[in-house]
Amino acid sequence: QAYLSYSNIAALTHLATKPGWDITRTLDKLKIWTHEEGTVLSFKVEMQVKVPSCIAFSLLSDFRLRQRWDRHFLTCKVLQAVSEEEKIYHVTSPPMMGHKPRDFVILVSQRQPCRPQEPYVVAVRSVTFRGLPPSPAFCRSEILCAGFQIHSNSSSSCTVCYFNQVTLGVMPYLAANLTGSSKSIEDTALECIKFLE
């Protein structure tokens, strides 16, 4: 478990520092970037939020609150609280046209910064959980690497960066083309900002 949580945080940090991100959309409070590598498409959403970084961190690290702003989360429950900083959740997503509803078993690892210039981190990856094998009612899907980095700008504002590495299997959810997917990403990001503020 210690290795899994370490590699969860490390994978997100590695994704965040990769070179070659292309900006695809710039709006007032948010920017969307993409990064393509083989069959893996990563995206980054940078949001300017008028709340302190510690508040954003506490709201974003509790995934049970995610349904309030992310319509891709239908249900979310804690399967196991591994430690103060690690929880395993079961998430279900609504069905899309012609697809079964999907479900995920994810490990969420949260870390507070050790030094003032470091971000708060909430890292997410899929794990297997013996107590919950795949069910025929759902299409069990995998999150390779996702999560948030929250950088403090001032005592009352922060920059929230959301990252997600998407394999082709997740693409039906984001629409086949990037213009469609960036619209869905953009709407979700605006809901996230509204929720945090």
UniProtKB/TrEMBL annotation:
Which parts form a coiled-coil structure per UniProt? none
One GO CC term on file: cytoplasm
Q: Which PROSITE patterns match?
A: START (PS50848)
Domain START stretches: 16-190
Xref: Gene3D superfamilies:
3.30.530.20
InterPro entries from the UniProt entry = START-like_dom_sf, START_lipid-bd_dom, START_lipid_transfer
GO-annotated molecular function:
lipid binding
User: Which Pfam families does the record match to this protein?
Assistant: START
Protein origin, superkingdom: Eukaryota
Q: What is this protein called?
A: ACO12 thioesterase
Organism for this UniProt entry: Dasyornis broadbenti
Q: Which gene encodes it?
A: Acot12_1
